[in-house]
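Input for the complex:
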Amino acid sequence: MYDITIVGAGPAGSTLARLLGKDYKILLLDRRDLISYKKGSFEKCCGGLIAPDAQYMLAKLGVGVPKEVLVGPQLFNVRTIDFQNKMERFYQRHYINIDRQKFDIWLVSLIPSNVDIRCGTLFKSYEVKKETIVVNFLSDGKSFTEETKFLVGADGANSILRRLLTGSKFHETYISVQEWFKVNQNQPYFSAIFDSEVSDFYSWTIPKEDYLIVGAAIKPKDNVSQKFELLKEKLINYGYELNKSKKKNGAFMLRPQNARQIFIGKDNILLIGEAAGWISPTSAEGLSYAFRSAIALAKSFASSPGNLLGEYYKETSGLRINIMQKNLKSPFMYNPLIRKVVLKSGLLSMNVEEQN
Ligand SMILES: Cc1cc2nc3c(=O)[nH]c(=O)nc-3n(C[C@H](O)[C@H](O)[C@H](O)COP(=O)(O)OP(=O)(O)OC[C@H]3O[C@@H](n4cnc5c(N)ncnc54)[C@H](O)[C@@H]3O)c2cc1C
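Predicted:
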């Protein structure tokens, strides 16, 4: 019998396992192999940028990112391109550019050795018994069950646990597509592209060594592949070098429109990270939210295991305010008329002397 079973060893699940591993008997399940790095293995589709808020959380967690996880170039500005208003601006912002698969493996390596980590394991379902929860999962094609007192869903945007608990889909779900292009000369910035012909959210380019990632978050009801092709066409016309495609992948991405859409769990089943809906609705930055929600739940276990859900709700009040504030800021980025005024004002923007 385990005290806590965590489904998902991404940034949220691995952080919770690290913080509670010494004090509780924990089972951590993930369908991915996060013990050793294998090129070409199944990886989380992600831009792999650690934004300032996530850097702050890593500082709070008292960890430093090892150099093996970093990829070049390190980025100091955002190129904001508004196709609709035909405008462009640069803004200073420091991102740590990482290999996301190596980052997740490094986070798992920090978990205390007494945590039972089972990779290549697919969580299927659970049953609530009188005192415990029975967890059903598949490994190597075989079915297994384990009993646990608490079950934590850290299984990301497409969380099966959230769907089992709520019986419905998250309100605002996007499909994100990323395509990697081999390039001769890479760009020293992260581009954020706004164009409602492509998406009511945003698109991006991120340099990774000899590759440039082109990504977009598009509503599933729109024609996702057609919109993505349109984005590439526009970028090529804008001067981007996108002829040698190396790989393409996709993932769900949530966009909470208000804090009420966040679902933190029920009774002894709790959700953290993007499974709960914790992600920035303006930038889709999710790493800091994964860390913050994991820390909040770890604190709740330490202070009030008898009223876990209530305590976790209290511990995440700052995160709820943060989601509300981001939604208030949203029109300045996503309303084309307001955005035009902001970009035209040049407020906080900078001139870049030399561009590649
Ligand atoms: C295209 C894209 C680009 C992004 N770029 C950035 C970025 O640059 N910076 C940033 O901060 N955020 C970014 N995000 C958001 C960020 O990736 C997520 O918010 C973050 O990874 C959430 O962490 P998590 O631990 O909650 O979930 P995840 O990282 O999604 O981890 C969930 C884990 O659960 C496992 N899992 C899922 N289902 C099961 C199951 N049934 N059984 C077993 N295991 C399971 C998965 O294998 C995975 O390891 C991006 C998202 C997308 C889609």
